[in-house]
């Protein structure tokens, strides 16, 4: 009878089991002895580094499989919003064109990579997954508001432009304009003031909103009831005195509309109909009953707000992402009655009217 | 048998006919069953002449074929006649009221003075002894209008207007219920029908068609302001104020109704407050968003204002 090339015997099995146990015990003894150097001041062994990098690449590739990129990642509004967050949230660790990372951060192991070089080694979907979920044992945090994928895409849109960006262009995108008072400087950087519009149409214009509404919004952001990975860190560092000061500052500014967008006349007209008269067949109440400026101070006024911001918020409301505040709970079922086209229409109308 | 929602406690002409039909059918059915039982007992235990009689061909033909055909035909004919199946009373003096089924409440439209109709909700008031032709429509899905102690059940079909006639024989309150599954809160879609004598009805109609009572004190004035500024008027009408929404029930005289939320709750300020803040727990999926934005003082003012709209 022909003998097979290898026939495991009982003895082979015992040897294999003992070897495995020996390896496990050896590994435990290495950890117990404390000889493996975990100092951040020294880099990993080359093989360890290779293995960790390999594992990270594979994990990101696998977990980002279901991610689908939105069609317009080169939208300048998305890029500018992402740039603002990059300046406040990312650049201190990763550096930026013309800016070195913080020297303390450069002493991390692994050191946060310079993204002009490293971002292009990932796909947009992979970048999205990393920015949203963070990476264990690297110091890369997860996005504070996991449901706000729309914000994460803004950062990704910016990262995609980063490789071709020189220092001058970066400074232009993330310029901090001179503010009337230092307390509002961080707000004005994105939301503008009486002399400058918001940096992106995805960022709301705050001039002339009521003080109560602005205070409420900042508190809701700070406590995460209104989820936003961009606004929560900004609002959470304000104390109640500063919240009041910021809110009073913007409430006192003269309302100014954003520069008009190109919407077709029919769209604006349809939007006007919904905003002023509602759409009774589907149970949609007229927007202006609450958002026209004669209602409670805790309701936002929408006239002159950019269409991208209004439409974006309505989509968040539809997904129930803003339902944790009493105001959001009122608006959530109403937003769900609107079709995508109706959202575009009302947003275009509000953007077209003078506040 | 004095339930407000019982077929066996008729308070209207049609319900009486239905009750008579029911009792007659029950009586007839009982007699037939007894006769069959006796014959069965005879067949099993009877003596031989009796069983021989049962076997005869004449008996089978007359009692087995002719008698049932005659009896059932007579009962059917009488039943159809008694119910006047599908008939709408052609009474020139009839009151016409429209009831529209909505998820999950009833919009009631009365004819007002000078041909101008006005709305109420979840309660139908009718005069005793006068024919009321109820036009049944629906705003969304199929509902069914059923007040067991007044009349039979008629469906509300999208795109159609069905008319049913009612005549109440006595004053008093009857309860109705949507009788066709229409979604999540179907079971909480009820209503009351209040039969009044003719003079009471006319004075009620005159009051109901008028504007709301203006708030009398500081608290209810705050309540009215909150009603307007919180956006309630986008969906609700209170005649005499800026609130002119048509999506939800007309609240002009909401405090004068017997119940809240389509006969789901008692009607008082506390219940109104609970409904405003917590309506999605009381009646899940109803179209009103929960308004948890008020502090206790504001909610009390708003509720008292609404409860006072008699």
What does this structure look like?
The complex is a heterodimer of chains A (355) and B (310). Chain A has 17 helices and no strands. With 355 residues, chain A is mainly alpha-helical. Chain A folds into three domains: 112 residues, Orthogonal Bundle (Cytochrome Bc1 Complex, Chain D, domain 2); 71 residues, Cytochrome Bc1 Complex, Chain D, domain 2 (Orthogonal Bundle); 88 residues, Orthogonal Bundle (Cytochrome Bc1 Complex, Chain D, domain 2), CATH 1.10.760.10. The longest helix of chain A has 24 residues. In chain B, the strands form three sheets. In chain B, strands 3-2-1-5-8 form a five-stranded mixed β-sheet, with no helix packed on it. Chain B has a five-stranded mixed β-sheet with strand order 4-10-9-6-7. Chain B has a two-stranded antiparallel sheet with strand order 11-12.
Q: Can you describe this structure in just a few lines?
A:
Chain A has helices spanning 10-33, 46-63, 76-94, 103-106, 115-118, 124-133, 149-161, 167-173, 185-191, 211-222, 231-236, 240-252, 265-277, 288-291, 307-318, 326-335, 340-352. Chain A has 355 residues and is an all-alpha fold. Chain B folds into two domains: 1-201, Cupredoxins -  blue copper proteins (Immunoglobulin-like); 218-307, Cupredoxins -  blue copper proteins (Immunoglobulin-like, Sandwich), CATH 2.60.40.420.
């Amino acid at each position: 009878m022909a003998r097979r090339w290898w026939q495991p015997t009982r003895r082979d099995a015992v040897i294999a089991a003992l070897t495995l146990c020996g390896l496990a015990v050896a590994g435990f003894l290495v950890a117990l002895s404390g000889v493996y150097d975990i100092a951040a001041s020294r880099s990993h062994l080359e093989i360890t580094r290779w293995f960790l990098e390999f594992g990270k690449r594979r994990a990101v590739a696998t977990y980002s499989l279901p991610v689908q990129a939105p069609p317009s990642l080169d939208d300048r509004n998305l890029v500018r919003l992402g740039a603002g967050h990059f300046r406040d949230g990312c650049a201190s660790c990763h550096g930026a064109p013309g800016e070195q990372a913080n020297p303390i951060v450069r002493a991390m192991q692994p050191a946060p990579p310079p993204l002009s070089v490293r971002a292009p080694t990932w796909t947009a979907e992979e970048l999205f997954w990393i920015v949203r979920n963070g990476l264990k044992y690297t110091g890369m945090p997860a996005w504070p508001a996991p449901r706000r994928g729309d914000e994460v895409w803004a950062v990704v849109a910016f990262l995609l432009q980063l490789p071709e960006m020189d220092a001058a262009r970066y400074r232009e995108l993330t310029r901090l304009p001179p503010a009337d008072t230092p307390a509002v400087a961080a707000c004005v950087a994105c939301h503008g003031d009486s002399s400058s519009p918001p940096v992106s149409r995805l960022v709301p214009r705050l001039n002339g909103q009521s003080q109560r509404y602005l205070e409420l919004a900042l508190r809701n952001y700070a406590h995460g009831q209104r989820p936003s990975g961009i606004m929560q860190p900004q609002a959470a560092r304000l104390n109640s005195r500063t919240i009041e000061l910021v809110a009073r500052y913007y409430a006192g500014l003269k309302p100014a509309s954003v520069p008009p967008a190109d919407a077709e006349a029919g769209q604006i007209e349809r939007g006007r109909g919904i905003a002023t008269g509602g759409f009774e067949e589907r149970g949609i109440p007229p927007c202006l009953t609450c958002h026209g400026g004669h209602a409670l101070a805790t309701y936002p006024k929408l006239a002159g707000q950019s269409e991208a911001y209004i439409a974006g918020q309505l989509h968040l409301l539809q997904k129930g992402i803003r339902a944790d505040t009493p105001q959001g709970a009122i608006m959530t079922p109403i937003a769900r009655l609107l079709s995508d086209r109706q959202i575009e229409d009302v947003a275009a109308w509000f953007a077209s009217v003078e506040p | 048998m004095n339930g407000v929602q019982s077929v066996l406690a008729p308070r209207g002409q049609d319900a009486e006919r239905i009750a008579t039909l029911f009792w007659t059918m029950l009586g007839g059915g009982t007699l037939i069953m007894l006769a069959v039982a006796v014959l069965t007992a005879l067949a099993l235990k009877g003596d031989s002449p009796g069983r021989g009689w049962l076997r005869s061909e004449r008996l089978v033909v007359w009692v087995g074929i002719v008698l049932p055909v005659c009896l059932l035909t007579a009962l059917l004919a009488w039943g159809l006649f008694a119910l006047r199946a599908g008939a709408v009373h052609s009474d020139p003096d009839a009151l016409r009221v429209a009831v529209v089924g909505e998820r999950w409440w009833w919009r009631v439209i009365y004819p007002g003075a000078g041909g101008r109709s006005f709305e109420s909700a979840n309660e139908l008031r009718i005069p005793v002894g006068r024919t009321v032709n109820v036009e049944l429509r629906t705003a969304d899905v199929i509902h069914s209008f059923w007040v067991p102690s007044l009349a039979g059940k008629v469906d509300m079909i999208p795109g159609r207007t069905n008319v049913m006639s009612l005549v109440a024989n006595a004053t008093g309150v009857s309860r109705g219920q949507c009788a066709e599954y229409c979604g999540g809160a179907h079971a909480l879609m009820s209503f009351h029908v209040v039969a009044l004598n003719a003079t009471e009805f006319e004075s009620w109609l005159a009051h109901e068609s008028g504007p709301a009572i203006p708030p009398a004190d500081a608290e209810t004035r705050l309540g009215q302001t909150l009603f307007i500024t919180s956006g309630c008027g986008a969906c609700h009408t209170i005649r005499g104020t800026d609130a002119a929404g048509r999506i939800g029930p007309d609240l002009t005289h909401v405090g004068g109704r017997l119940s809240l939320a389509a006969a789901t709750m008692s009607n008082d300020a506390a219940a109104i407050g609970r409904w405003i803040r917590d309506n999605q727990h009381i009646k899940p999926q109803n179209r009103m968003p929960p308004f948890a934005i008020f502090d206790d003082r504001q909610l009390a003012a708003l509720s008292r204002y609404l409860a006072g709209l008699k």
